[in-house]
Amino acid sequence: MDEIVRNYVSGHLIPGGNITRCVDGRYLEKDAQGTLARPGGAFGYTEALLGLDNQNNWGRNPEFYFDALQKVLSKIQGTSICHFHSDEHSSIGCGHAAKAADPQYAPQYGVNPEAIKVLYTYALGKAKRDQGAICVYLKGAHREQAVLINDITSQTIAPQDPAEGLMYFVYDRKKDREIVELITGGLSEYIPELRFNEFWGMLSRQTEATLALLAAGLPQYEIRLEEGELIVRNMASQLLAEMAA
Ligand SMILES: [Zn+2]
């Protein structure tokens, strides 16, 4: 498995960018080009803002956060378009949003599940009316074999290679953190209470919730460059080595 993943990553690093996509493995390589993979795509940022709103009783409505994010993204991305996704199977086809909208799992995300439903419906409406949102409808079934946590900021990883029958969850962690710093700065105009550490904490909590629910039991790999050399590390092996040391 480790060798397959290492070979896959070295052969499937592609240019990254500021436009978000989800960690979902069903994106085709052409749609992953020039993007940043993070749970829920741009929707994930508003999902975390709803978590903070819920936790701190800020009392703003879901639509407010989506509109504010659009304004901020227009400066960071050069386009105000919020990218998120659904699929062919369900009304909320993004697992990161669907689990948070489910009363059973919402506590893990720190959100009110009804507010997530309102937010997703609002985003879909904006996508339908071409008002600065794009919903990508992913095709096929989940067949992810591992989680790739990428800390190379200039590149992302194509999530699947249909010819090889390989598919992975991809999270561009370091690039995500960089963008969240920029987004926090931009959002402070609309949400003066927002602090980076609190925002990043909520985003990380929700990322962990989704990986625990949707990628349970899958091996996790961390990917980075060290003096130009590609490092692909199996986190379980790393943990065992540390315990043995
Ligand atoms: Zn998704």
Task: Describe the fold and architecture.
This protein is an alpha/beta fold and 245 residues long. It has one domain (2-244). It contains ten helices and eleven strands. It has helices at 2-12, 29-32, 42-56, 62-76, 95-100, 106-109, 113-128, 173-187, 196-214, 235-244, and strands at residues 13-21, 35-37, 82-87, 133-138, 147-150, 155-157, 160-161, 166-167, 169-171, 220-226, 229-234. The strands form four sheets. The chain has a four-stranded mixed beta sheet. A three-stranded mixed beta sheet has the order 2-1-6. Helix 3 (42-56) packs across helix 4, helix 3 packs across helix 9 (196-214) and helix 4 crosses helix 8. The longest helix is centred in the C-terminal third of the chain and has 19 residues, at 196-214. It is globular. It starts with a helix and ends with a helix. Zinc ion (ZN) binds at residues 22, 24, 40, 85, 94-96.
| Overall SS class | alpha/beta
Total domains:
1
Strand tally is 11
Q: Low-confidence segments, ≥5 residues, pLDDT <50?
A: none
Largest sheet, strands/sense/barrel: 4 strands, mixed
Q: What is the helix fraction of residues, given as a range?
A: 40-55%
- What count of helical segments does DSSP give? 10
Protein topology:
Blueprint: H1 2-12, E1 13-21, H2 29-32, E2 35-37, H3 42-56, H4 62-76, E3 82-87, H5 95-100, H6 106-109, H7 113-128, E4 133-138, E5 147-150, E6 155-157, E7 160-161, E8 166-167, E9 169-171, H8 173-187, H9 196-214, E10 220-226, E11 229-234, H10 235-244
Parallel strand pairs: 1-2, 3-4, 5-9, 5-10
Antiparallel strand pairs: 1-6, 7-8, 10-11
Helix pairs in contact: 3-4, 3-7, 3-9, 4-8
The protein binds zinc ion (ZN).
Zinc ion is lined by residues 22, 24, 40, 85, 94-96.
